Every structure is written in C-alpha cells, then in structure tokens.
Amino acid sequence: MNEELSNLLSFAGEEGGISLLDFVINLGLTGVFTFLLGLMYDRYSKVLSNRKVMIKTLVLVGMTTMLIISIVKSSVALSLGLVGALSIVRFRTAIKEPEELAYFFMSISIGLGMGANEKWITIAGFIILGVVIVFLGGKKVVSSTQNLVIRTQEKISETEMLTLLQSQTKSLDLRRFDQNNEYSEFAFMLEFSSVDSLMELKRMLEEKYKNISISFISNS
Question: What is the pTM of this model?
C-alpha cells in the first residue's frame, strides 16, 4: 500500500522525477508568475491591441510549458516524441510586435524553470526581469502623433465625429472627409496622451457605430 502511494505521488518513480506535491506547487507558482507577467504587459507594453487577451495567453503558455517539461524531462523517448510533435505545429496568426515575442519567451522561460523544478532560480529570474520591464517601460505612452482612418457604412456628420474624438485626444486635425450614400470615411492626424486614451477611443467608436473599420498608423 505504501509503495503504491509512493508511486502515485511521484512521476515515473525514477531519478529526475517530481513528486505530485511539487508538481502542484510548481504549476500554481507558474500560474501566479505568468499572470503577474501579463499584468506587466498590460501596464508597460506599447502594443496597441489584444492586451487583456494576452494576459490569459501568457498564463496558458507558461502553465502548458511547465506541464510538458514535467512530463518529458525524465524520459529521452518522450523528449524525442515532443520534438517530432512540435515540428508539425504551425501558427496561423503571425506575431506582429517584437515586444509580444519577448513576453512569450519570458512566459515559456517561467514554465521551463518550474517544470525543471528550479524554483528559486526561476523566481530570482522573474524578479530581475520584472525590474528590467519596469525600468525600461516607464510611463506607457504612444508616439506623439497618429494617423487615424475611420470608415463606416453610416452617414456621419463631420461635427459629430470631431466632437467624439476630441474627448480622448490632445490635438486633432481632420485631413480628409469622404461621404456618399454608402459610406463615410475620415482621415485624422491626432495626438494621444497615453495608450489607454487610444484604446478607450477605439472602444467608444466600436460601441457607437456598427460595421466600422478603424486603422491607426504611427508616425514614428
């Protein structure tokens, strides 16, 4: 009975295996640290889209990596099988921002460290990376000016659109306005005080107008 319980509490029961208790603790720590990493991403990243979704993604990537490493680290056969399985994986959506890739690598690193049962090294590395992110991140701002192109299938007056945009911008300049019975299109040069203002404006436009197309183009 004791031997069966011992086998249950240890993966593979071999040297290099990990107890079930350690596995649960490491998995929990991975979730906590990758969630904190996601909050740093939301607070300090300059990326303009998918900020909230990215937090969940970082947690899932880190915890999945930790699970895989915990399973395969004591078996050469499983490791080779993992390499073969990953060789057929393809990403349908390209990562557009290098900063996103950096955060993905950090999440994977946390999962690797915890999966290898190297808690203290991983924790120390996370703290150092966190300090670097805060130091380099500073105040979350966007470039001084942005080009904004808005296209809708509704007839919207120039005054109405200007009033809406002025609530979230520091400066605003209408560069082009085209309208017919099928669509309205605006092109603005504008300045935001922060990424939050930009994202709030995007949310307001999407809530107010149906079938709207919004394009931000940085001048930096």
Answer: 0.58
